[in-house]
Predict the 3D structure of the following.
Amino acid sequence: MRHEERLEQYRKSVDEALELYLPSDEFLPQKRLVEAMRYSLFAGGKRIRPVFLLEFCRVCGGDPEIAMPFACAVEMIHTYSLIHDDLPCMDDDTLRRGRNCCHVEYGEATALLAGDALQTAAFEIMLDAVLTGGGDMANAARATGIIAMNAGVYGMAGGQQLDIDGSVEFQNPFETVMATHALKTGALIAAAAEVGCILADASEDRRASAVSFAKALGMAFQIRDDILDFEGDAALLGKEVGSDARGGKLTFATVKPIQECKSLVISATQDAIGYLAAFDAEGGEEGRETDFLVWLANDMMNRRS
């Protein structure tokens, strides 16, 4: 299967599963909340985190179907974080993926609830999978814990706090940005990769290599994101360009020259790809199929949106 086809198949499968987990319900009295949740969840996201989770599960010899609830849960958590990130009390953005942010479309209060409800739904889905998912119950419970930890104060939410603070606890602005996005961006990506391995009952070495791959690639992804905010095409990005710099926000592109940022994207991507060697070293047919991950890493490095 061609890499593009595999990516599209993953995205289609995730979207179909998300539809089952969060169907529209026009007869529900609180249907406006469901509409707001679906508005953001089906806004055309890249589904990168679910794809990593499913692919690492497959590469390690697991069953992606058993991993699907966790892939959907990770996407719900990511979506809730975007809804909250766009709120007036956070980044105060108005556009996301080429259309109004959730709070612009539904109001700030409903957007806040939509984020809350997506996070709650994610854990409902994972706990149901622990009890009835058909895989190893201990691994499923461990996977849920990994996602929880990386979404909370020691992961994504903690990174968001650093982003708000513009913390002065670090020696220089570059270290601040690195520390912020290791948590805000990298933690949930790393969790997705690790959970894919856990659900396939992979070795500790493979889990560690998957986490290292995802952390390096998450950093490359964020640096590329900051570059695009500096010099990208607003029509392709689906949001305003240059808002971070105008708002005085610390980003890779505001603390380092753009050319140096581009070099950092390349080196971080190369580092990430290097960690995949551990999957080949263990042998077995299921352990040598990392070409798709290599292709995806390079595709993310060169993305324009």
Summary: Confidence is low (pLDDT under 50) at residues 283-287. The first strand starts at residue 95 and ends at 96. Residues 3-302 form a domain with the Farnesyl Diphosphate Synthase fold (CATH 1.10.600.10). The chain has one domain: 3-302.
